[in-house]
Amino acid sequence: MELRTLGYFVAVAEEESFSRAAERCRVAQPAVSQQIRSLERELGEQLFERRPRSVVLTPAGRVLMPYARDALAAVASAKAEFAAREGVLTGDLTLGSVDGVEITPLPRMLGTFRSRYPDVTVRLVGGTSSALLDQVRHGALDAAAIAHPLQPLEDSLGHRTLLRDEIVAVVRRDRREARQTSITLQELAGTALISYGPDNGLHPAIDEAFRRADLRFAPAYATNDVALLVALAVEGVGIAVAAGADPEVHLDPRVIAVPVTPRIPYRKVLVWRRVPAPAAPLRALLALSEPYLAE
C-alpha cells in the first residue's frame, strides 16, 4: 500500500470525482483510476461505488478513510517538523470556516502567517459549524472557525475565541419596535420572524433562548444569507434575528439593530484537535494568534 495511492484515494473521496481528484493531484485521470483499482485488488474489496455523475465511498472505503488520512497526516507532519528544525516551515494547513469570520481576527492572522511562512500551503474549506467540527474531530481539517456549540467541547479539542457577540433584532425603521430600547423574546415570538436555517451554527443558541422562555422559535423565513435577511426586513416581511456584529445588519439605513431581551450571546471560536499533537504549521498559526485570541 503506497502513500501516493492513499493520497489519490482521499482525493477521490473528498472530490467525489475521479477527474476532479486527478486535477487536484495534478496527474492524468487514468493514473488515478489505475491506482484505485490496484488498491481495491490489494485489499480485496471495492472502495467506491461508481455512479453516473459521482463516486461515493462503500462501507469498506469508509473503514479505510481514517487510516488513510492518519497516514498522510503523519508523513506531512514529519516533513514539516524536519523542515522546521532547519528553520524553514513547510507543509499544508487546512482550515474550515463558516460565514462571517471576515469580521474576526482570522484574516489578519492568515495575512501575518503568509508573510512569515510563505512555503506553507493554506487551504480554506467552507461549511456549517457542525459539519466543520466533525471534520476537525476526524482529522479532515487541521482547525476550523465555527460558532461554539451549546454543549462544552470535549477535552480532546482545543479552542480559542475569535469573536464575542450577541443576537439582535433587525427592524424596519417605520415599525413601532424600532423606537424601543430592546425587544423581548415574547414580542419576537408574536411576529413574523426571519432568521437562520437549522443548519446554521447560531440557530441552536437562538432556539435555546426561546425554549428557556417557554416560547417556540419558528422563523417564517429561514436563510443563512444575512443580506437576504435584512432585505426581507426592509420589505416589511417581518423582523429579522441575526448576529449583531455582521456588517450586513448595519449597511441599510432603512433598518435598525435593536437589542434582544434577554440577551442571546454567542462566540465564534477557532477549534483544533489536541490529540494527536498539532503539526508544525498549526502550531505556528496558534503561536502567532496569541495577541489576537483568548482561551
UniProtKB/TrEMBL annotation:
Keywords from the named record: DNA-binding, Transcription, Transcription regulation
One GO CC annotation: cytosol
Classification via PANTHER family: HTH-TYPE TRANSCRIPTIONAL REGULATOR YBHD (PTHR30419)
Cited Pfam families: HTH_1, LysR_substrate
Record domain HTH lysR-type: where: 1-58
Keyword Transcription carried by entry: yes
InterPro entries: HTH-type_LysR_regulators, LysR_HTH_N, LysR_subst-bd, WH-like_DNA-bd_sf, WH_DNA-bd_sf
Record lineage: Bacteria, Bacillati, Actinomycetota, Actinomycetes, Kitasatosporales
UniProt name for this protein: LysR family transcriptional regulator
